[in-house]
Amino acid sequence: MRPSDETFNGEMSIQRWVSDSFPSGIHQVADSNLVMPGEEQIDLKMQCLLSVMELALRCTLVKPDARISMKDALSTLKKGCAPICSIASCMLLDFICWSC
Hints:
mainly alpha; flat; LRR_receptor-like_kinase
């Protein structure tokens, strides 16, 4: 789906779509190439994906003063991914954990 998709008009935004799908329907909103069924260490990869998506939702809240600061977001990202980066390797981790 793209931001210009007809789904995202009126009250429905990408942030709301992801938020409504989180966490049980995350596989419907995430790129299927990030975590594929049958992959090694899929539980760790899903844990990382869920952590990153939760952080992304906190960064994109409607009210700017309710959003997490970028400093705190980076700190959260490093803390959440660092243990996983040392154990698992995948496209998702390579993309989001470049600073670990």
